[in-house]
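Please produce the structure of this protein holding NAP.
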Amino acid sequence: METLQNKAILITGGSSGLGLAAARVLLERGARVAIAARRADALEAAARQLGGDVVTVEMDVARKDSVDAGFAAATERCGGLDGVVTCAGLTFAYRIEALPEERLRHIVDVNLIGTVLCCQAAIPLLRERGGGRIVTVSSASARHRNEFPHMAIYGAVKAAVEKFSLELRDEVKRDGIAVTCISPGSFVTDITANFDAAATAEAYDLWCRNHGPESDGMADPRWFGEAVAHCLSYPPGMAVDFMEVRPNKPTSKR
Ligand SMILES: NC(=O)c1ccc[n+]([C@@H]2O[C@H](COP(=O)([O-])OP(=O)(O)OC[C@H]3O[C@@H](n4cnc5c(N)ncnc54)[C@H](OP(=O)(O)O)[C@@H]3O)[C@@H](O)[C@H]2O)c1
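Below is the modeled complex.
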């Protein structure tokens, strides 16, 4: 495997949860890491937690002007770009009938449009470097029924991220750019912090009655970070196209 020492890696959604865990592991491996998110206070808190030389960049992945400015700032401060991890994402739990239009559009804008805008910004910078790696982030919700209910649009959008990643792989391999899509199962993060309480109670009740007893448990975000580091460490000409990382804990069965 290749070393990550001095590799410049930008992680969107790097102020929290899975992105923050990835930043921690990559810093431990000697990479130069930039973390991007919308909230400056959360970025600063994450940088304090990480210690060392981490670059923070305010960026809204759903806005092209913000993405382009953020990638330019991160590249300048890290001395180039060798890889990007498009980890910014969010979801809400609502029955399809009850999902407010504004939240529907927000799920699509951040998870899908945001991923595409970040890849568009990354490609010329990686090409300039002679190649590099893009890691996109899907979700086990795209495939598995025992994930949390009432997240149909989120699952559909993450399935689109997987298809997009597969197509992108073929488009950029001539430039020495490899694309990996990682699909996480359930990890302990703040992703449910924005959930509407009543809609969540309804989804939770359904989950307990149906898929809950078959759940595989919740995982430590560190294992996502390890998966990212692994996928970024393959030598040129080799890539993990798709990886699903899920907890596999014994749980009570019905
Ligand atoms: N946790 C899980 O079990 C799980 C499972 C499968 C997939 N995932 C995926 O993993 C990724 C990370 O989720 P997480 O669980 O780590 O959630 P999290 O703890 O809520 O972190 C989300 C991160 O994304 C950033 N973000 C949200 N909207 C953004 C925007 N418009 N522009 C830039 N940054 C934005 C947040 O910062 P700001 O709010 O400050 O912008 C934060 O840094 C997501 O793509 C999620 O879909 C998570």
